[in-house]
Amino acid sequence: MNESAPVVKETGWRNERVSSSLPEVYRSMKIPKNGSWFRKFLAFAGPGYLVAVGYMDPGNWATDIAGGSMFGYTLLSVILLSNLMAILLQALAGKLGIVTGRDLAQACKDHYSKPVAMMLWVLCELAIAACDLAEVIGSAIALNLLFGIPLIVGIMITVVDVLLILLLQNKGFRYIEALVITLIVTIGGCFLVELFLSKPEISGVLKGFIPSSEIITDPKMLYIAIGILGATVMPHNLYLHSSIVQTRQFEQTTLGKRQAIKYSTWDSTIALFFALFINAAILIVASATFHTSGNTGIAEIDDAYHMLAPLLGTTAASVLFGVALLAAGQNSTLTGTLAGQIVMEGFLNIRLKAWLRRLITRLIAIIPAVIVTMLYGEEGTMDLLILSQVILSLQLSFAVIPLVKFTSDKLKMGEFANPLWLKILAWVVAVVIAVLNIYLLVQTFRG
User: Fold this and answer.
1) Membrane-crossing residues (predicted)?
2) Is 40 helix (H, G, I), strand (E, B) or coil?
3) Are 283 and 79 in contact (CB under 8 A)?
């Protein structure tokens, strides 16, 4: 199909869709036409959990640990607010893919001029590389803590996951979803035990979910709070979700799309509540273990690992923490691979073999991680982890604003365009995210 062929203007798109998103799995999973709503929901369930992975990756752990150890349960309200924002944005991403048949990258390429689209592509690739960097470092730290494997060796071991991902992609998309859900359950199970061992104060936890004015008035608390917000909503997840919802064979009718939007939104919302539980659990454990014992300076993953066992009186606490960290790091690599493929194919229409694309992305993350580890050791890798979150924060608005713009456009979305109340809410969230991330960047560069 000719890429430059004009589309009827009423559609709101300048060009015909050149190709489907993730063609090897596009509309590969059947949806039962008959049967109960639960059976249909199960057929749609899966993509939300791949999206939820990005909200519990190692990059989030440091901010949650710092927030809990320094300020107790107070910042639980920030985690809740971040999650609600994520639920809204992921629902919009899913709707864009279902209604238009385009992922966010393809939509950006069509809507914006070539220079703007190229800028968005470069920024998104940087964000994916930064996210991959966090996963590499997180997995390497977990291997070091659990098995004593040197950080550099651990970083090199993470290359092996290329083979695992290639195997799963060849077997079918359900296998990737099944592995991701298994790892999420592993992380959740580990932190369920951690919560039991740490014995948090229930009244304090419940109070923590109520927003406090102290978060705004205390500069240190505000900085950590914005860090949590910035680390929670992941830009590449918006590209990912708009693509993987198209793996389902829903009917290309108004009713079929409406049903797909409903089940897809349920799927991502339920999955993101799992992410809320895990992020909240990290902060609660840090608060109940470190803050209450006066260890308010615990802000790094390895410090938390080493302090859990003596404070809780069992080595199981540290081991479970390490296992959860390793599962989080490996889980995030799966979704990072898919996001990288979607972004490259959507913006450039360049198709690389899955293993080659994954290897390139992984090497971009491994090279700086190895250099920094060799020069500065563990302290340097933690600084690199923080830098990766800053890069993610910088790119976030460049994904959120186009998403809100496209899903609010009646020409592009037709009757599925955001109603006025949703349009206002989405733009408020987009502006809040942009302002907070600018503040976070300014404060970070000021030191």
Assistant:
1) 37-55, 75-98, 119-141, 147-168, 175-197, 221-240, 270-292, 304-328, 359-378, 384-404, 424-442
2) helix
3) yes
Coil, helix or strand at residue 125: helix
Q: CA 308 to CA 317: how far, in whole Å?
A: 6
Contact 144, 136 (CB under 8 A): no
From first to last of the 447 residues of the chain, give the pLDDT tens digit: 444 444 444 578 888 887 888 887 888 888 888 878 889 999 999 999 999 987 887 777 878 888 899 999 999 999 999 999 999 999 999 999 999 999 999 999 999 999 999 999 988 888 887 777 777 888 888 898 889 898 888 888 877 765 666 666 667 778 888 888 998 999 999 999 999 999 999 999 999 999 988 888 888 888 788 777 766 677 888 999 999 999 999 999 999 999 999 999 999 999 999 999 999 999 999 999 999 888 887 777 888 888 888 888 888 888 999 999 888 887 777 777 778 888 888 998 877 776 676 677 667 767 777 777 777 776 666 677 667 766 777 788 899 999 999 999 999 999 999 999 999 999 999 998 888 877 777 776 776
**299: helix, strand or coil:** coil
Structure tokens at 39: 């059976």
> What CA–CA distance (Å, rounded) separates 60 from 173?
26
What is the separation of C-alpha 122 from the centre of its chain, rounded to a whole number of angstroms?
19
CA distance 311 to 292: 10
Q: What is the C-alpha separation between 404 and 304, in angstroms, rounded?
A: 38
Residue type, 71: F
Burial 119-149 (b: 16+ CB within 10 A, else e): ebbebbbbbbbbbbbbbbbbbbbbbbbbeeb
Q: What is the DSSP string of 250-276?
A: --SSHHHHHHHHHHHHHHHHHHHHHHH
Collapse the DSSP code of 394 into the 3-class scheme (helix H, G, I; strand E, B; otherwise coil) and give the result.
Answer: helix
Separation between Cα atoms, residue 211 and residue 225, nearest integer Å = 11
Cα–Cα distance for residue pair 25/27, rounded to 1 Å: 6
- Going 390 to 394 to 395 to 401, the CA torsion angle's sign is positive
Residues 6+ apart with CB under 8 A from 93: 104, 237, 238, 239, 241, 242, 403
- Compute the distance between CA of residue 274 and CA of residue 310 in angstroms, rounded to an integer: 28
Q: Are 269 and 91 in contact (CB under 8 A)?
A: yes
The Cα-based distances of 385 to 18, 131, 373 in angstroms read 37, 9, 12
